[in-house]
Design a protein that fits this description.
By secondary structure, the chain is of the alpha/beta class. It is built from 51 helices and 24 strands. Strand 8 (608-615), helix 22 (620-647) and strand 9 (656-663) form a beta-alpha-beta unit. The radius of gyration is 41 Å and the shape is globular. The two termini are 19 Å apart.
């Protein structure tokens, strides 16, 4: 951070402190130590504690009452256990200090390092700067080219000749033209320039009608658009074909700026907009005055042009004032088309133009399709009319115009007199030169429009759109003037462009100069809104421009006047102070981050995200990944909060969140006691590792609060940034388990209980629901905060988006992960991008997807998602792919699902062959079942969903058919490879050789166990990978023999080219292409065997992954491990049968010959059970030792000093749960049985949760959970008959699907194989020789084979095109979120403030709130100094007296306070220390 920035930040902080009254000592509770920390005091000696006994007793009493609450709400806890816990907490109220020598740390490495993130961040900044400069050059250059090519064509229409020697055309004789005739090629070139944007608009509308669902037309907006656009087409035709040809190029360019009268008038009539209604009267008056001046200058501009025309008219024009009248009214007619931009959009009760504009917005696609088709007809009719009236030879002009005659004479009194000819050729130029110039104009105009769109999308509107467009006309005039001064503008040695030339100097009339200045001023004053930078990233074109496309004649004017004036994302300058007034409370002490109370920065439209991660059997490393992601997000959110609270900088990306972890099957029951299982305890242990990995310093968070709930339990942490992380521990005996039911659980909790109970009316709840999002996560996902922000941007851009997913990257090690890297890449590059462009993404994966709360709350979504499976197919569709089924419900309800390629998330992929096959065994059937559900319901889906059309349904049907036939296609490919490698084998033997292993695998899928199937599939996959090597050799051989005269060679080159180009278009994922070779080798296994395995095991509904045994909990000292009974081997069982071995397993195998000798084979050590009482004593002592609480050394020494000699009976409070010592040797049997029947301990009394603070949930929430469980989430009871019925249905479903699947593929293979065999037997009679085959080189093809190749090729071509479109959109999105610091955000400013961007402010806040290693080291140094001081004090205790005692106490108090702050430090604490 530079010194200047730090100094400006310091000034801003100082001024802001003064503004909010922070001159006094800041005592915000949000930035103090946690209240829980008061309980954990660090002691050094008997007089070193700086906390009063009253505070200590208060903390203990508070904890006692909390434990009493747990005791009341829990049905499983007992009063005895509660009193034991209270007694323990009273004794061990001081936290145990860690060993001072244990200073080494272990952190988790990031999958994406900070250096990589910094590199790409800097690369994106540089790219954005370069791209903004490129856009500036492109916009300016293409606008100049468009203007120049337009007037190149216009200058050759109505040129001066013997019939017409106009002073307007020659500027009083200063311009000299190369021709005296008007060629029809120039006329039709102008027609193409005018009609090109109309055609583009029609194509766009047809695209939307094809792939989107469009609302019906309303009559009033259609009629208004027909009238206004007809007037525009008539005026533009007169303007272009009549007026501009009568002016010289310089005057014509200036005259184009006079077409802004209607926008100027409407800007005066409708000065207010919803965004500037809050302006003060001063600025309202200034705005009205500016609008009035713009209207006056527009009128004066047209008036002075009339004066100029009148002064420059020839004698033949004086008698006919038609041209003068057209110079007045044509610009007015042209400007009508932009009325919509200057009329505010009304509400439901509006009338007039406001109401029509609102109606037009709802049906504009169909209206534009009709209107622009009509405009094409009107334009052609006007051209015919202009060049046919006053024709000297009757209809000869029309005949010449339509190329039915060589020439004709036009003698128009209004436009002029000229000879119309077929063509005019200049030198050696082509006769199609005008058409080529028109093509250049169309391409440059379209490129200019698209570059303007891109500039607005990436938030570089001012430098890359406004500035070049405003400069385009002056620069065009300057360049044309420079070119006119040259003798010729040659294209080749014999061809030159027919531009007019200056004969001598140039002197224009004063009226023309004044009119030009007035027109330019009008455009600038009417379009002042283009200088306010938009804040909406990736703004859609219809939100950017009012009318579709651009005007081919008035390119710059249409881009300026058509840029949407509605300031929904910008505000006027005078609203800065009001806008920058952040909702900071007067007294910040009343709020603290992480509380249930509403944040003062949160408004109804502030995004609030519930992060919901589902955990089950994740490993420690996987848990660390999700925790690191949550801690990173907590740091980012805390920085954004502090940026607004303390620097007054409004962050447009501000959000709030809560993190929730839902643990399935989180409890174990041992001897009737519920205990959190090893995975829950593993999560608690990994939190510190995750914090160290993110914050790189000794930061810790307090132990979690523990809450007993009707579904199990809850652990609540407060993260370093003040946000909450809540772990919901599900007890499968109390609530239904599995991932789908966890989603039902949290969706109802957040959206039905918390959201609907907030109050405020339906409109407020609807607004909050629209901005409430659920981020579904897996327990091993790793992502950055920017990835979540990109998904939120998707939601903000389109309120109809119900879900958005990011790019999932598989991580791990091994060949299976390498394969999945390429598979995931191809799936996202091609398949998901195509679905996003053509329609909707069909599956938003549950590992990293954002769902809108209001869409989930809609009808037929959440309610239907709670449907339990009742049929066999339900298990496949509902439970095997719950994320895909939820997206299916959203699509059927009409919502859109999008894919954001720039939002990256990493997740662990299966590393073993068996686990991978089981995962895909679950995914494949659910995918096909949900797609089939959509296709079967296509009529309702296309009716309700505007983004799903019949063409998109056909595309998905084609993909479904190709997926079904893929195994048969792979089978034939392997057959061909065998035949190619061993040509001596006939096709029949090649078929048999390939069919036998496949048939055996199919048989195993029906009769063998899963492990047997997978073992055989692994072996067969290895064999097939060798066969694919033969395929490579065969393809190389075929390419060498036939060259590119081979369909197979061309197709494979096309496929490889698509993948290679795709990898270059994804530079961050480029190295995924390296794994493409492995992907190719695995095609038979993954496309044929995996499909067969999936449908053959359709009746298996197990999860398939992470079904590993639970991790063993850490064994406590003195706790004996209970080993399971050893398994009996086959030899032992045989010896037991013949009586030679002990069936009880108490000894080995003993052979005896009387008393002579005995032989013990494989002796076993067995415990001696004779002395039962002694074993009972030992066991009891072990239990007591295991429950011993190890207090700190200081604590033990202090207690011994104060209490003196303590007997074992008096120290019974040191044992957890020890109240009375009973010797089992002298205990009666009845007492033993009574003691064994004691009330089981509750999970909250687990020693691993001894430091957790007990809390309770409100009674209303308890009622909610009980009702929810009783209604939807009650545990499924194991009804044996129902299970048998379900299994029978699943097997029947498996048999039906397999029969259909195998029959279809068998039929396909039989047909293709028969054709190949017949073709081979007949000598190739049914094959078609390619035209390129010559001299034995070339390939012959069979019609059916080429048909299927063509289908796959067409699908891949469509996917490649859609990928390019989506990739361009992703590139712009990345640049849109990249801030380069050129624009300053709206913020609270004072006279002392300096401009600080949001990004730089966030960087500074993050650096100020980060805990440095120096802070941790200072604790150690403080401890050392205190220890030394203590030692010195001890040496001089007798001499120093009371002063040294006071000094000693102060030092220990300082150390205790310092350790307390550092042990549970928060980001806000650190920030406040640096901020003061």
């Amino acid at each position: 951070m530079s010194f200047e920035l730090s100094q400006s930040i310091s000034k801003a902080a100082t001024s802001f402190k003064n503004k909010v009254g922070m001159t006094q000592q800041y005592t915000n509770k949000a930035y103090e130590s946690f209240p829980e920390e008061e309980e954990y005091k660090i002691s050094g000696s008997d007089d070193n504690d700086d906390v009063s006994s009253e505070e200590s007793d208060s903390a203990v009493s508070t904890n006692d009452s909390a434990y009493q609450t747990i005791s009341k709400t829990s049905r499983d806890s007992a009063s005895a256990g509660t009193s034991d816990v209270k007694q323990r907490r009273k004794t061990t109220k001081k936290i145990r200090d860690s060993n001072k020598w244990d200073v080494f740390r272990e952190t988790s490495h990031d999958n994406v390092t900070s250096s990589d993130l910094d590199f790409w961040k800097k690369a994106f900044k540089v790219t954005k700067v370069i791209f903004a400069g490129v856009l500036f050059v492109f916009v300016l250059g293409t606008a100049v080219i468009s203007k120049g090519t337009l007037f190149l064509i216009v200058s050759n229409i109505f040129p001066p000749n013997a019939l017409q020697n106009s002073t307007l055309k020659t500027a009083n004789g200063y311009f000299r033209y190369h021709t005296t005739d008007t060629a029809i090629t120039y006329i039709w070139s102008l027609v193409l320039i005018v009609l090109a944007p109309y055609v583009f608009t029609i194509i766009s509308c047809l695209w939307r009608l094809t792939f989107k669902k469009i609302r019906p037309i309303e009559i009033k907006p259609l009629l208004l658009m027909l009238v206004s656009e007809t007037a525009h087409s008539v005026g533009l035709s007169i303007f272009l074909f009549g007026l501009l040809p009568n002016l010289d190029p310089v005057s014509g360019s200036a005259f184009c700026m006079s077409a802004a009268l209607i926008p100027a008038i409407l800007n005066l009539v409708y000065p207010e907009s919803p965004q500037n209604e809050a302006e003060n009267s001063k600025w309202k008056l200034a705005r009205r005055v500016l609008s009035l001046v713009a209207m006056i200058t527009s009128v004066l501009s047209i008036a002075f042009w009339a004066v100029y025309v009148h002064r420059m008219e020839g004698a033949w024009q004086k008698d006919s004032p038609g041209l003068l009248i057209l110079f007045i009214f044509a610009p007015i007619f042209v400007s009508i088309t932009w009325w919509e931009n200057f009329v505010p959009k009304g509400d439901k009760n509006s009338i007039g133009l406001k109401r029509i504009k609102r109606q037009l917005h709802n049906c504009k696609t169909k209206v534009y399709l009709i209107v622009y088709t009509w405009k094409i007809a009107v334009t052609i009719a006007m051209v015919t009319l202009i060049y046919s009236v006053d024709c000297a030879d009757g209809n000869s002009c029309i005949e010449t115009l339509y190329d039915a005659r060589l020439n004709a004479t036009l003698q128009s009194d209004t436009f002029g007199k000229t000879l119309i000819v077929e063509n005019v050729v200049f030198g050696e130029c082509s006769r199609y030169l005008p058409l080529l110039v028109a093509a250049v104009n169309i391409v440059s105009s379209f490129a200019c429009y698209k570059c303007c769109v891109a500039a607005n999308k990436i938030l570089t509107q001012i430098p890359s759109f406004s500035l070049p467009i405003v400069l385009a006309t002056p620069i065009s005039v300057t360049i044309m003037a420079a070119e006119f001064s040259r003798d010729e503008l040659s294209m080749t040695s014999g061809c030159y462009l027919p531009f007019p030339r200056w004969t001598d100097g140039l002197a224009y009339d004063w009226s023309m100069i004044v009119a030009s200045i007035m027109g330019y001023m009008t455009i600038v004053m009417v379009t002042t809104y283009i200088w306010r930078q938009t804040k909406e990233r990736m703004q859609q074109e219809d939100r950017m421009f009012v009318q579709p496309m651009y005007c081919g004649v008035l390119l710059e004017q249409s881009m300026l006047l058509n840029r949407r004036k509605d300031e929904g994302d910008t505000k006027a300058i005078d609203v800065k102070m009001k806008e920058s007034e952040l909702p900071i409370p007067d007294n910040l002490e009343t709020w603290r981050p992480g509380d249930d109370s509403r944040s003062p920065l949160r408004e109804d439209d502030t995004p609030f995200i519930y992060l919901c991660a589902t955990l089950w059997h994740e490993t420690e490393n996987e848990m660390i990944q999700i925790l690191k992601s949550l801690f990173r997000l907590d740091t980012d959110q805390c920085a954004r909060r502090n940026l607004q609270l303390f620097f007054g900088i409004r962050d447009p990306d501000y959000y709030e969140f809560e993190a929730h972890i839902f643990f399935d099957d989180a409890f174990d029951y041992v001897d009737g006691e519920s205990r959190a299982n090893g995975y829950v305890k593993q999560l608690m242990k990994t939190i510190d590792d995750a914090i160290r990995s993110v914050h790189t310093a000794g930061m810790k968070i307090p132990p979690p609060s523990k809450i007993d709930t009707p579904y199990g339990g809850r652990l609540v942490w407060r993260l370093p940034g003040g946000n909450q992380m809540i772990a919901h521990l599900k007890d499968k005996q109390k609530i239904r388990h599995r991932k789908r039911w966890s989603q039902v659980m949290y969706m109802y909790y957040f959206l039905a209980h918390k959201l609907l109970s907030m109050g405020g009316g339906k409109e407020r709840i609807r607004t909050v629901a629209d901005h409430t999002f659920i981020l579904a996560l897996d327990g091993d996902v790793d992502f950055q905060p920017s990835a979540l922000q990109l998904l939120i941007d998707r939601m903000r851009r389109n309120p109809n988006v119900g879900a958005a997913c990011g790019r999932i990257h598989p991580i791990g090690s091994g060949p299976m992960v390498w394969y999945q890297k390429f598979e995931y890449a191809v799936s996202h590059w091609l398949q998901k991008a195509t679905e996003h462009v053509l329609g909707c993404v069909l599956c938003s994966p549950g590992c990293f997807s954002l769902f809108r709360g209001s869409s989930i709350m809609d009808d037929n979504v959440m309610k239907r998602y709670t449907t339990p499976p009742t049929e066999g197919r339900h298990y496949v569709q509902y439970d095997q792919g719950e994320d895909r089924w939820l997206c299916t419900l959203l699509l059927q309800q009409g919502y859109r699902v999008e894919y954001c390629a720039a939002s990256d998330a990493l997740t662990y992929a299966p590393e073993g062959f068996y686990e991978f096959y089981n995962q895909r065994r679950r995914w494949t059937p659910s995918t096909m079942a949900n797609i089939l559900d959509l296709l079967m319901d296509f009529k309702n889906v296309t009716k309700r969903n505007n983004d799903i059309s019949m063409l998109y349904v056909c595309y998905q049907m084609l993909l479904m058919v190709s997926s079904i036939l893929t195994p048969g296609t792979i089978f034939l490919m392997v057959l061909g490879a065998i035949n190619m490698a061993y040509p001596q084998l006939s096709l029949y033997w090649a078929l048999v050789l390939n069919l036998i292993p496949v048939a055996v695998f199919i048989l195993l899928c029906f009769v063998a166990k899963s492990d047997t199937q997978l073992a055989y599939a692994a072996i067969l996959s290895t064999v097939y990978s060798l066969v694919m090597m033969l395929v490579i050799v065969g393809l190389i051989k075929q390419a060498a023999e036939n060259g590119f005269c081979s369909v197979t060679t061309v197709f494979l080159c096309f496929v490889a080219g698509v993948f290679i180009i795709a990898s270059f278009l994804h530079p961050q994922e480029f190295w995924c292409i390296v794994h493409g070779f492995l992907y190719f080798l695995a095609i038979p296994s993954m496309s044929m065997l995996l499909m067969l395995y999936s449908i053959g095991n359709l009746h298996v509904v197990s999860w398939g992954t992470r079904e590993a045994p639970k991790p063993a909990a850490a064994q406590k000292p003195g706790e004996s491990a209970k080993a399971p009974p050893p398994k009996k081997g086959a030899v032992q069982e045989w010896l037991e049968k013949i009586g030679l071995a002990d069936k009880e397993g108490k000894s080995g195998y003993m052979f005896a010959f009387g008393n002579l000798f005995r032989c013990m084979c494989c002796p076993q050590e067995t415990p001696d059970t004779g002395d039962m009482k002694l074993n009972a004593i030992l066991e009891r002592l072990d239990d007591l030792e295991a429950k011993l609480v190890d207090p700190p050394a200081d604590h033990v020494s202090n207690q011994n000093e104060t209490r003196g000699h303590v007997t074992f009976s008096e120290a019974s409070d040191l044992f957890e749960g020890a109240k009375e010592r009973i010797n089992p040797l002298f205990e009666d049997a009845d007492d033993v049985s009574n003691r064994k029947q004691r009330q089981p301990l509750h999970w909250t009394q687990d020693p691993d949760f001894r430091d957790s603070i007990p809390e309770s949930i409100p009674l209303s929430e308890v009622t909610f959970w009980r009702e929810l469980i009783d209604t939807y989430l009650f545990p499924m009871e194991g009804d044996k008959k129902q299970q048998e019925k379900t299994l029978a249905e699943l097997i029947e479903l498996r048999n039906t699907v397999c029969l259909f699947f195998l029959l279809v593929n068998a039929l396909f293979v039989t047909i293709v194989f028969s054709l190949q065999q017949v073709n081979a037997d007949s000598g190739g009679n049914i094959s078609i020789q390619l035209p390129c085959a010559e001299g034995g080189r070339g390939e012959s093809i069979e019609p059916i084979s080429i048909a299927f190749t063509a289908v796959f090729g067409v699908l891949l071509a469509i996917q490649f095109l859609c990928m390019c479109i989506h990739r361009m959109s992703t590139f712009l999105q990345i640049l849109s979120i990249t801030e380069i610091g050129l624009c300053t955000p709206k913020r609270a400013k004072t006279s002392e403030d300096s401009a600080i961007t949001v990004e730089k402010g966030l960087e500074l806040v993050k650096s100020m709130q980060a805990v440095k290693d120096d802070d941790t080291k200072s604790v150690v140094s403080s401890a050392g100094s205190v220890a030394e001081s203590t030692a010195d004090t001890a040496d001089t205790d007798e001499a120093g007296g009371a002063q040294n005692g006071v000094r000693r106490k102060e030092l220990w108090s300082k150390l205790a306070r310092r350790r307390r702050e550092q042990q549970y430090s928060t980001l806000s604490n650190t920030f406040m220390n640096n901020f003061k």
